[in-house]
Specification:
With 697 residues, the protein is α/β, with parallel strands linked by helices. The chain is 48% helix and 11% strand. It has 28 helices and 17 strands. It is globular, with a radius of gyration of 28 Å. The structure holds (S)-3-Hydroxyhexanoyl-CoA.
């Protein structure tokens, strides 16, 4: 216990230092340690004040999430915090790193809070499907006022020390040594004398809910728009509202029940799973920590098209100089002009200021020759999806690029082993598969060809993190992990339209599940011709016995490429992006169905859900079985960040475990009987059902 909370005395100030790496989470041992050492400070006649600080990188970043699946053990955090109210000596929280969740609640239980300038504090609990359950919903409104408190509690985003000072959460920002500054602050409050502020006491300006209806409604609306389908932000608001109509102790008691029910919810289980799943992606079983990444001080991008531009922006935004190469001056000029326009749009939307735009744009240089890439530490090819074009590019690159440069392709489905095989340096070649728009979407699939060296892979993963992306490793196969596991969903969506469902009906089932857009509306956005070209390039490998996407082909033959053509699965106003149902699609689907001998019928929402979801899950299982994805959770992280799958559902593989693999297998087999071999069940799915196992647990 002494190890997790250390006690020492500096002058007449006790310093309690929490040491529970990596983030000083408030585990059972830490809670016990805080209580014990606080009592020691209280009893110590040589002590007038107590400073609470974190050892290592941070003040406690919250309750220990790993303990959430175990029965709660006393002392509960709220009791630890409430005990501080009775201590007559002033207690000062000295914050560095991130004071989050229970960490900030503990700080709010102290009489004063000081922090270093780069500290951040917040209440991110809603992101875990819970809300601040150690009286944060009661104390923060009293400290920061209702609006600021709801901002932190409902939106779950941390604020800077400067903002926290402005909100009244902090009493002082300490420049220089935090502990020394906190001790000096403690001495000054002792000299100033009592009373010391206690955050559970009533505060002026915090009246009954009726006085704050507008503010409360504002956050209810925000909870609906930013956390569609998610319960915890609403529970957080109710908890705050309880505090407006009840005395502190009664509101805390009501919180207890509400918190336990949130913690036990499926949404919270899924969100906690997603939290750890995201962190797992960094762990590659056969690449140890001793493998260091190659330094990247400058980069190159081949292609100034939509993807190339997005990639260049994502690098320039984090301070990396980047050279964009195009085949000719006209294409380059057009690409660079569009880059400038994109940055100008960011300024006009208030996302960045003029100076930042100029600075970032100045990091992007255009060139029309690969020679300009000779100094780049990383080159990402984002050219047309054509294997021969890519082979040619890499042939040129291997000559120009300096030794040790990592050469990446942004292909979304091609055989990178085949590309690497044509060069003399396959160890340098990896896939970096971005999702559009590349500067916005956080997903980055790091594809590992057979001959890539471990340090090239580590470099790709580290580069992902540096550019603010979530890097997830994938093996080489057609479509890798993300697109390969999603393709069956899109396939089924189009088959369902062929069989009688409307695009609106199909898309609605998926948006009702929590996806931001339905698969057919997404196809319209990205262009139906993209997958059409892919199907054409694979024509020689087509299985004549498997059902084929005739309807999707027909749409393309008719020029219905989606939004850019004004027509796709939906109809669009000229220049518009809002999908409108189009009777023409129904007629086309009916004609194709007739040609294929398909009798159209009414299709239920349940069937649409099962067809789309189980097709993806079955493919995910195959991907896992083949070792293309290392973990089921990696597939889930790709769906969360690549496709906007609702985080509170965990991901498709997590959801599969929730539904029950036995039920899924039974349905997959039933679909196989009706729809044929595309529905052949994954042998991993069969094995897991036989063994009673799961993908994620
Ligand atoms: C809460 O407080 C509830 C209370 O209101 C009420 C209670 C009654 N617990 O992210 P990183 C691990 S809920 C356990 O890679 P970074 C993490 O898994 C909590 N473990 O580092 C990883 O382990 P590993 C509210 C935790 O520098 C390692 O620490 N708080 C916790 O990129 C490093 O993490 C939050 O939601 C935890 N609370 O980011 C904050 N936090 O090395 C959650 C981290 O084995 N945490 N770990 O993979 C974060 O947001 C980030 O971890 C943080 C550091 C910003 C702190």
């Amino acid at each position: 216990m002494g190890n997790v909370v250390n006690y020492k005395v500096d002058g007449r100030v006790a310093v309690l230092a929490i040491e529970n790496p990596p983030v000083n989470a408030l585990s059972h041992a830490v809670r016990e340690g805080v209580v014990t050492q606080m009592e020691r400070g209280v009893a110590d006649d040589g002590v007038d004040a107590i400073v609470l600080i974190g050892v290592g990188r941070t003040f406690p970043a919250g309750a220990d999430i790993r303990e959430f699946d175990q029965p709660a053990r006393e002392p509960h955090l709220v009791a630890v915090i409430d005990r501080l109210d009775d201590i007559k000596k002033p207690i000062i929280a000295a914050i560095h790193g991130t004071a989050l969740g229970g960490g900030l609640e503990l700080a709010l239980g102290c009489n004063f809070r000081v922090a270093v300038p780069d500290a951040r504090m917040g209440m991110p609990e809603v992101n875990l499907g819970i809300f601040p359950g150690a009286a944060g919903t009661q104390r923060l409104p009293r400290v920061a006022g209702l609006d600021h408190a709801l901002e932190l509690i409902v939106l779950g985003k941390p604020v800077s020390a400067a903002k926290a000072l402005e909100y009244g959460i902090l009493d002082e920002i300490i420049e220089g040594d935090l502990q020394a500054g906190a001790v000096a602050f403690a001495e000054s409050v002792v000299s100033a004398g009592v009373p010391y502020p206690i955050s559970s006491k009533p505060r002026d300006g915090i009246g009954p809910p009726g006085e704050h209806a507008e503010t409360i409604d504002k956050y209810r609306d925000l909870a609906n728009s930013r956390f569609r389908g998610q319960e915890s932000p609403h529970q957080a608001i109710e908890s705050v509202v309880d505090g407006l109509r009840m005395p502190y102790a009664a509101a805390v008691a009501a919180d207890r029940l509400r918190f336990e029910s949130c913690k036990a919810s499926r949404q919270s289980a899924a969100l906690r799973y997603a939290f750890f799943a995201e962190r797992e992606t960094a762990k590659i079983h056969d690449i140890g920590k001793e493998v260091t990444s190659r330094p990247i001080d400058s980069a190159g991008v081949i292609g100034a098209g939509t993807m190339g531009r997005g990639i260049a922006i994502s690098m320039a935004d984090v301070g990396l100089p980047v050279t964009v190469v195009e085949t000719g001056q006209d294409a380059l000029d057009a690409g660079m002009a569009e880059l400038t326009r994109l940055y100008e749009a960011m300024v006009s939307r208030g996302r960045i200021d003029e100076a930042t735009k100029d600075e970032r744009l100045s990091r992007i240089t255009g060139a029309v020759s690969y020679d300009a890439l000779s100094d780049a530490d990383l080159v990402i090819e984002a050219a047309f999806e054509d294997l021969d074009v890519k082979k040619e590019i890499f042939g040129a690159l291997e000559v120009v690029a300096k030794a040790g440069a990592v050469l990446a392709t942004n292909t979304s489905y091609m055989d990178i082993d085949a590309i690497a095989a044509t060069t003399s340096r396959p160890e340098d070649i990896i896939g970096l598969h971005y999702f559009a728009p590349a500067n916005v979407m956080r997903m980055l699939e790091v594809v590992r060809p057979a001959k890539a060296s471990p340090d090239a892979i580590t470099t790709g993963m580290k580069f992902a993190k540096r550019t603010g992306k979530v890097g997830v490793l994938a093996g080489v196969c057609h479509g890798f992990v993300a697109n390969r596991s999603r393709l069956p969903l899109v396939r089924e969506a189009t088959f369902l339209v062929e069989e009688g469902a409307s695009p609106v009906q199909v898309d609605k089932v998926l948006t009702d599940l929590g996806m931001p857009m339905g698969p057919l509306a997404v196809s319209d956005l990205s262009g139906l011709d993209v997958s059409w070209r892919m199907r054409q390039s694979l024509a020689s490998e087509r299985d004549p016995e498997a059902r084929y996407m005739h309807l999707a082909d027909r749409m393309c033959e008719l020029g219905r490429f989606g939004i850019k053509a004004g027509q796709g699965w939906y109809d669009y106003e000229v220049g518009g992006r809002h999908p409108r149902p189009d009777a023409e699609v129904e007629a086309i689907a009916a004609a194709v169905a007739r040609e294929q001998g398909i009798v159209r019928r009414d299709i239920s929402e349940d069937e649409i859900r099962a067809r789309c979801l189980y097709a993806a899950i079955n493919e995910g299982a195959k991907i896992l079985d083949e070792g293309i994805a290392a973990r089921a959770s990696d597939i889930d992280v790709m769906w969360l960040y690549g496709f906007g799958f609702p985080r509170w559902r965990g991901g498709i593989m997590f959801m599969a475990d929730e539904i029950g693999l036995g039920k899924i297998l039974e349905q997959v087999r039933a679909f196989e009987e009706v729809h044929g071999k595309l529905w052949a069940p994954s042998s991993l799915l069969e094995r897991l059902v036989a063994e009673g196992g799961g993908f994620t647990r």
